[in-house]
Prior knowledge:
Protein name: Cytochrome c oxidase subunit 2
CATH class of the largest domain: Mainly Beta
CATH architecture of the largest domain: Sandwich
GO molecular function, one term: oxidoreductase activity
CATH superfamily of the largest domain: Cupredoxins -  blue copper proteins
Number of domains: 2
Helix content: 25-40%
Pfam families: COX2, COX2_TM
Cofactor: Cu cation
Membrane topology: Multi-pass membrane protein
Amino acid sequence: MAHPSQLGFQDAASPVMEELIHFHDHTLMIVFLISTLVLYIITAMVTTKLTNKYILDSQEIEVVWTVLPAIILIMIALPSLRILYLMDEINDPHLTIKAMGHQWYWSYEYTDYEDLGFDSYMIQTQDLTPGQFRLLETDHRMVVPMESPIRVLVSAEDVLHSWAVPALGVKMDAVPGRLNQTAFIVSRPGIYYGQCSEICGANHSFMPIVVEAVPLEHFEAWSSSMLEEA
């Protein structure tokens, strides 16, 4: 998870987030090179005392500074489109979970099971135990099996919300009366935190999201215990 004064992204926990981080680094390097070149040209133009009359009107240099930016934009656009389609691809999910946003908590329904669902409320500061994170912990976590395609159906009961978990590269708006869907694969076991990313009212910052990824056999044991409690 993120820590104070962190400059980069959280460690990627899904293949899509790994691709997003690679694309960010790729684009950042292009921006860095362009910024360095422009700064050098500005410095050279300001400090030089020489004037070359042939540079003032040159068809060749105008062609270069028209074609070169177009090539750079293509180098950015093609990987971007590839990741965009990867994020939209949902192939044969092993598990489908419906996440419903309320003011101000999330409710989850495991649609592949007959009666498996629960509400997820933030744990108040005075109730936290040592090792838990303020404003991020919930009384019920969304438990998923690792290395399995998970589809999340996202909607809202009242106002706009947004279901977002940065480490998984997932962010989907929850719109009342509309059912959106997103998908992810968790690469390794762990606990991943997110928050509502849409300004949804007075307690907007108090409806966190906690996704716990566990091995398949542990998920099956958890689901069985939840069904017995229900």
